[in-house]
TrEMBL record:
Family matches, as SUPFAM superfamilies: Iron-dependent repressor protein, dimerization domain, Winged helix' DNA-binding domain
Quaternary context: Homodimer.
InterPro entries: DtxR_MntR_Metal-Reg, Fe-transptr_FeoA-like, Fe_dep_repressor, Fe_dep_repressor_sf, FeoA_core_dom, HTH_DTXR, Iron_dep_repressor, WH-like_DNA-bd_sf
PANTHER family: IRON (METAL) DEPENDENT REPRESSOR, DTXR FAMILY, TRANSCRIPTIONAL REGULATOR MNTR
Pfam families in alphabetical order: Fe_dep_repr_C (PF02742), Fe_dep_repress (PF01325), FeoA (PF04023)
Localization of this protein: Cytoplasm
Protein name: Transcriptional regulator MntR
Role summary: In the presence of manganese, represses expression of mntH and mntS. Up-regulates expression of mntP.
Keywords: Activator, Cytoplasm, DNA-binding, Manganese, Repressor, Transcription, Transcription regulation
C-alpha cells in the first residue's frame, strides 16, 4: 500500500529529528510538525504496526532500518526536486522548497529515477544537503556550525540546516553562497554575533544565522 501524504510528512520529520541512536521523542515530533501529542501517538502506533518504529509508552521512539529507508526515500524525492528546479529550471535556491513539498508526494519511482538521470545523479541538493540514493543510503559529512568556529579560522560554507525562504534570501543578499570561503574576524561576547569576511567584504551575522550555517575546515 502506498504511503499517504500525512505519513510521508511524519517520515520526513523522523529523518530530520532522529539522533545518533535512531531515537526521537513524541514531544519533538509534536513540536516539529505542530501537531497535538495524541495525534502523534496514534500515528506512531500505526508506524509501529508497519515496523517503521519501535513504540513504547513514555519512551523515545526508535526508528527501525525499514523506517529509516522509507523516510530517506521521501527526502530523496524532495531534494532531487529542489536540485532539478535549480539546475534545469533556473529557480533560485530560496524558491524551491514549497514546490518540492508538493512534488515529493508523487509516488512514481520512474519519475524520480528519470529526474536523477537527467541531473547526472547528484550527491547533494542546492542547499548542500546529501541526497539519499535509491536504497536510502546517505553520504556522511563531517560538518560543524559556523557558531562553533573560532576567531581567525577560515572555513568553507558547505550546507544550511532546515532553512526557510527568508533565511536563504538573507544569505543571498549578503553573497553568502555555498562553497564560499568565510573568515571569522570577531565574535561578540554579549550576543555571540560573528563578524565574517566573504570575498573581501565584512558582514555581521547573528547567532541564529551562524547556527544554521554548516561549514568544513
Amino acid at each position: 500500500m502506498k504511503t499517504t501524504l500525512t505519513e510521508e510528512n511524519y517520515l520526513k520529520a523522523l529523518f530530520h529529528l532522529v539522533d545518533s541512536e535512531n531515537k526521537v521523542t513524541i514531544n519533538e515530533l509534536s513540536k516539529f510538525l505542530s501537531v497535538k501529542m495524541p495525534s502523534v501517538n496514534n500515528m506512531m502506533k500505526k508506524f509501529a504496526d508497519k515496523n517503521w518504529v519501535i513504540y513504547e509508552t513514555y519512551k523515545p521512539l526508535i526508528v527501525t532500518e525499514k523506517g529509516w529507508r522509507e523516510a530517506a526515500l521521501v527526502v530523496r524525492k524532495h531534494r532531487l526536486t529542489e536540485m532539478f528546479l535549480v539546475k534545469k529550471m533556473n529557480f533560485g535556491w530560496e524558491n524551491v522548497h514549497e514546490i518540492a513539498e508538493q512534488l515529493e508526494h508523487v509516488h512514481s519511482t520512474v519519475f524520480f529515477d528519470k529526474m536523477d538521470e537527467i541531473l547526472d545523479h547528484p550527491k547533494f541538493d542546492p542547499h548542500g544537503e546529501p541526497i539519499p540514493d535509491k536504497d536510502g543510503n546517505i553520504i556522511s559529512q563531517d560538518l560543524q556550525k559556523l557558531s562553533s568556529c573560532n576567531v581567525g579560522e577560515t572555513v568553507v560554507f558547505t550546507s544550511v540546516t532546515l532553512s526557510d525562504d527568508s533565511f536563504l534570501n538573507y544569505l543571498t543578499e549578503r553573497n553568502l553562497l555555498l562553497n564560499k570561503k568565510i573568515k571569522i574576524l570577531k565574535i561578540e561576547s554579549f550576543d555571540k554575533s560573528v563578524t565574517v569576511e566573504v570575498d573581501g567584504k565584512q558582514e555581521i551575522l547573528s547567532r541564529k544565522a551562524t547556527d544554521k550555517i554548516l561549514v568544513k575546515k
